[in-house]
Amino acid sequence: MTSFVMLFPGQGSQYIGMLSSFFYNEKNNIFQNTFNKASDYIHYDLLKLIKEGPEQQLKKSQYTQVAILTASYAIYRFWKYQKGISPLFMSGHSLGEYSALVCSSSIKFLDALNIVFLRGKLMQKITKNKSYSMQAIIGIDKKKIQYICEMISKKRKIVSLASINSNDQIVISGDESAVKKVSSNCKKLGAKHILKINVNIPAHSIFMKPVSKKIEKLLNIITIKPPKIPVINNVDVAIEYTKKNIKNALLRQIYSTVRWKEIIDFIKSKKIFTMLEIGPNQILTNLNKKDHNIIAFNTKNLKNFSTAFNTINLIKK
Question: Could you give the residue range(s) of every CATH 3.30.70.250 domain in the chain?
Answer without folding.
Answer: 132-196
